Give the backbone structure.
Amino acid sequence: MKKWIPVILMISVLAGALTGCGAKKDPAYLSGITALDYVEPAEYKAIEVSASMSEIDDTYLDQYIQYMLSMNTSTKEIEGRDTVESGDIANIDYVGKKDGVAFDGGTAEGYDLTIGSGSFIDGFEDGLIGKKVGEEVTLDLTFPENYGNADLAGAAVTFDVKINSIKEAVTPELNDEYVASQNIPDVTTVEQYRDYTRGQLEEQAKATFDEEVQSQILQYLTDNSTVKQDLPAEMTERWNKNYTDMFTSYASQYGVDLATFMSMYGSTEDTYEADLKEMADAMAKNYVTLKAIAEKENITVTDKEFNTALTTQAAQAGYSSVKEYKEKGDPESYRDYLLVQKVMDMLTENAVVTAPEAAPAADTTAADTTAADTAAADTAETAAEEPAEADAAAEEKTAE
């Protein structure tokens, strides 16, 4: 199965999401076992890690801001010209016909088509260039041989098109007015917006760096620690149930069953249950290994630390009080999470981090660089949002 879920992300997502009674000395939880009976951790004092943090220089910042401006693009009707040109947004009605009969999916009204975008089959957009607003055009075209719809693949068709209007995309200018429209607290000028955006990007870069470092630490421990005996069945079964419940919840959000959802990430109908168990076993081993290090280092979570953190966790999980969380949730799993985070913080602080060797410089155009950075910015923004969404979904499932 693909390694499609970052281990450190799953530790965060699953914190407080596990179901169970949370009884003391329950071998389903770290507090119920002596971890060194199960795992001998590899040498952990100075784990070597190869990672570097992205630098947010002025070029990257400018590209990201331009990307954000483009996300706020609006349109306006073109004045002083009524002829379609490449780059225009043509609002059209169209009917596609094969052998004189309209085919499914080939009809629309009021559709905004960017001319030159390649959204439609070859010849459609080019056939509108030079035509006027209000004009009706018939286009004789042919679907490509490899078109996804077998009934239309390679077929000769006609499109009757009426051009309703032509518009142009308008990207907002970076000025104080635009900044004010973003409703960011205490950010009202361009200079403040640039400082704010740089700070956000630096936080994202740091989070990505930290996740990479911790993922490598966990991978090192997984590869080099020694399992002395099978982990408690209660623990692995608890993790397996949680994974199954959580991904079933995700699947329902997409309107598919669990097998279909897992297939999106490399599983099959025959393997997805085994894949879930493999993930559960791996996470249980990670937790027990980190607990073993905690035992060696006398790292603990005090009752005061636990109760303070539990107050915040209960509120974030949607409970009205800590008492309700203890009754309906699974606070003992959150105690486990707090402990492994303490250990991870210690391991990260003591890790020997070196920058990876630079790859040979590629012959990249400025346009390619801009596109790559824009994509990276988009990915960073999405990545920053997803963990919080996943955590909320997991907590909601637990509350049910």
